[in-house]
Structure prediction request, 474 residues.
Amino acid sequence: MDIETFRRAAHDMVEWMARYRAGVASYPVKSPVSPGEIAARVPARAPAEAEPFERLVEDFERVILPGMTHWQHPRFFAYFPSNASLPSVLAEMLTATMGAQCMSWVTSPAATELEQRMMEWLADAFGLGPAFTGSIQDAASVSTLVAVLTARERASGFATNEDGLYGGAPFVVYCSEEAHSSVEKAVKVAGLGRKHLRKIPVDGDQAMRIDLLEAAILRDQSEGLRPLMIVAALGTTATVAVDPLDAAADVAARHGLWLHVDAAYAGAALLLPEYADLARAAARADSVVVNAHKWLFTNFDCSVYFVRSPGDLVRTFELLPEYLKTSEGSRVVNYRDWSICLGRRFRALKLWFVLRTYGLDGLRERLRAHIALAGDFARRVEADPRFELTTRPRFNLVCFRYRPDGVTDAARLDALNLALLEALNARGKVYLSHARVRGEVTLRLVAAQTDVTADDIALAWDEITRAAAALGAG
Ligand SMILES: Cc1ncc(COP(=O)(O)O)c(C=O)c1O
Prediction:
């Protein structure tokens, strides 16, 4: 492609992008295609001959778009959002255009130094304070894996990297039974063995039982195992429950364990002074992860990982083959040594664009608006006798279910709610997802889309009540 073709195509594409984002609400939120439908429209082999670019653009609209779920749709209420605010998209265009691989300071000094600043900005804005530094990882799963590996190295006196995990008593990791599956994956990948993950039961608020946590640690110690780490949630995936962070920090301090706070989703709320107590408690951790790519309006991927002891981190990951040696020495940071991959994207740029375009006050306003919208939705649920809240609404998530008069059988209620979800999502106007609370199916509405409005919440409630009425009592 020559530069003039690129220029024309890029202008057309920006037009397409603006049109798409202006009209995204007109698409069915969830892609209606069946498994295999898109693959069937893509040839089985790559083309031998070059094709005109226009044909590609046509095929993108014809073949690909119908198979897309529209995550930036204002009525995407499922899972957690993957907000791609417009300033973050613009930054991503620049990042892709420069195509820099930012593994070392020298391979793009601005990428490293802006990342350092962004981590400082966010540690300060979240109320974690200057004791934390960190780096931008691709995902919370990787941040948590990095935390587990660093904790393992520190606890073994950095011997595991050298000798492997042979011999020695097994390390044990603790999280609640509501923790994200990435904790279990990290324990598996780190070679600790899944059977050495203790999933501590939760209380009625879906938060970790600290009495049972400590009992489990004492039991493991008495059996000669090595308690290593507690992963506490600041916002679980199913219900954004918050584990008792202060109490978890006390237990970690008493037993010399690493405390990692998984604030992947709800950590964004730490920007709000009303959550200062949570920030103060989270600041007692050894590491904290917040996904800017969820509720902080920065397009995927951008996971900010804070640590107290970057020295331990670097000692865990650093390797210095000749071809990576540079002359700056300790005057610079080389982020390749702060995680698993050597190659790194320039992720700080989009965070910079977002933080400056909205300003912290603008972000706070949006977070508060989302929390208020969830409150509005929760009141609608509470006021309708056919529905019930399944947990106390927290942040901007509402967990609720359909419970028509006279239906009390648990299995029937589960089936009814899954059928309601299926019918609702098939209509294409809204997209919600589900989880289980105390073993029972619950529907989840997350009011977190960048530009979601009160009208979207009203429409969602209308859709839900209509779909429920059509279903009756099953
Ligand atoms: C609490 C929590 N932790 C971790 C993750 C994993 O995030 P990622 O997709 O960035 O790995 C999620 C994803 O939703 C989450 O909700």
Remarks:
- The CA atoms of residues 138 and 301 lie 5 Å apart.
